[in-house]
Target: Homoserine dehydrogenase
Amino acid sequence: MAKIAVLGYGTVGSGVVEVLNTNGASIAKRAGDTIEVKSVLDLRDFPGDPIQDKIVHDIDLIINDPEIEVVVEVMGGVEPAFTFVKKALEAGKSVCTSNKALVAAHGPELLEMAKERRLNFMFEASVGGGIPIIRPLNQSLTADEITKITYN
Model:
């Protein structure tokens, strides 16, 4: 079982948790493993919410938890997202983000950190409204040298 943490429980974060809970069986079949949301970081409490017992307010509880393998960052903005993602990578956790501002400001640095540690830094959800473009560019066009993508 893969255990993950979600940073942020707003519209996107609660949607991620809902999709994982609702479609857990089909996701597990495709991923080859079940995925459990172990912790959700948010400033707020959510009394009565199904995940109320998973809410944490301290990022270090996630960073120092050896069971958590993947951190899903959906907080938005550059800070504190950058600091939290950097800590996660330094702690040996792969990261998935939908945060455009974070990727624009620190994408190359975070990709390099992940590469050095043989981790994943997945950011496809932050590009083109979630249109799957990053993976095809990396996998299907590896023989081509792509220097930039522009819009006129």
